[in-house]
Amino acid sequence: MKPSVGIVGLGLIGGSLAKAMKHFHLTSRLVAYDGSRESLLQARAEGVVDDFPQDPSQLADLFRGLDYIFLCCPVQVNLEYFRLLQGCTDRNTLITDVGSTKEDIMAAVRSMRAQSAFIGGHPMTGSEKTGYKASNPHLFENAFYLLTPAGLSDDQQLQGLLELLSSMGAIPMVVDPQTHDFFTAAISHVPHILASGLVNTVRCLDDSSGHMHTLAAGGFKDITRIASASPVMWQQISLTNRSSILQVLDRLLQELQGIRRSLADLDAVGIYDFFNQAKRYRDSFQDKGGRPLVQTYSVTVDVVDEPGIIAKIASTLSTHGINIKNIGINNNREDDPGVLEIVFYDKKSQQDSASLLSGLEYPVYVL
Asked: Which residues does the UniProt record annotate as the domain ACT (predicted)?
């Protein structure tokens, strides 16, 4: 029997979850709540949502007895809704969230001695666009989706959630909350801090005519692009993952102090080793995620995960004389939109491919 599902927060992630579940026919009933009545009305008109409360006071009654509830708001707001929902749920209801930090919310849920089961969740996908209008049913296809059970649910509930997410095309992985927060601190949170730090450094060092601002291009723009993310969101993430971020920052400072020492001492071997070790490790990624610290010519394309899609795109580009350096699925899309990543040898090929694929009505993002 298909499960009944509730979603609190119909933004990009919540809206995409709802659309994916409807698209793949995964639910018997889907209800939702959002602060925007416009989003709720649009979702119901599209057949994505079966029902929604007319006002917040009706939320508990509408969400009573559901199999799954997804909390898709900021961490503190998710906790408020989690408390509210305790009056209408029991151990048969599994509540999960979509936040990018896990230790804080898992500890808070555990301290409540909640009636419902809980599994932390973190879909590693996203878009530069926000809101329900930006949501799409294929957002999770071939994207990592991290889960942190931590003893607040049973094995059957975890297996059910794994199957539900896999049915949407996601790649679920189970980790403990501490490991999750440490990993994301290293590969996501500290890179955002570093990008913002580089931008602030240039801002402080620039002259009154703004020459650095004018000249900044290529590699600098590539590695600092994520500094344009929401300051409010990253303030919250930094505060909720403080311990892990501090650990990673301390290790980063050791690296920076090491290369500074090598430069001051004219230690050519130390300088070479610094860059060579980074290059060897970065090259081992095989362009499956992240951005190298050099100029690249890439685009990402939002496509439906179906047999032959990579060959179809590659053939289209080849027919128009555009050579591809590398092509593959982008599994971690928190900072990079687009399912399919294509790397080219030069800027002209990048621009030509973007124009060609956009003309064929594929959503294309130039990186």
From this structure: 298-367
Rounded percentage of the chain residues whose pLDDT exceeds 90: 57
Q: Which helix (H) or strand (E) holds 45?
A: helix 37-45
Domain that holds residue 135: 4-175
Report yes or no: 121 and 150 within 8 Å, Cβ to Cβ.
no
Classify residue 172 as left (phi > 0), alpha (psi -120 to 50) or beta.
beta
Residue where a domain terminates, one of 127, 145, 175? 175
* Cα dist from 70 to 46, 58, 81, 137, 295, whole Å: 20, 17, 10, 16, 39
Q: Which one, of 178, 146, 151, lies nearest residue 162 by Cα?
A: 146
> 108 with 241, same domain?
no
Q: What is the CATH number of the domain that holds 336?
A: 3.30.70.260
- Tokens linked to 234: 């990253």
The domain that holds 171 is classified in CATH as 3.40.50.720
Q: Is residue 288 part of a domain?
A: no
Whether 345 and 353 have beta carbons less than 8 Å apart is answered as no
Identify the domain boundary among 229, 260, 283. 283
Nearest CA to 5 out of 41, 73, 51, 56 is that of: 51
Q: At what angle do helices 177-184 and 103-112 cross, to 10 degrees?
A: 150
Rounded Cα distance, 100 and 240, in Å? 9
The residues, any chain, with a CB within 8 Å of residue 177's CB and separated by 6 or more, are 102, 103, 106, 120, 148, 150
Rounded CA separation 200/117 (Å)? 43
- What pLDDT is recorded for position 1? 86
pLDDT category, 334, cuts 50, 70, 90?
Answer: low
Give kind and range of the element (H or E) at residue 13: helix 12-23
pLDDT-derived band at 292 (thresholds 50, 70, 90) equals very low
Angle between helices 268-283 and 242-264 (to 10 degrees): 140
Mean pLDDT of all residues in 214-221: 81
Q: What is the mean pLDDT of residues 86-97?
A: 92
The first and second tokens of residue 15, run together, are: 């809206």
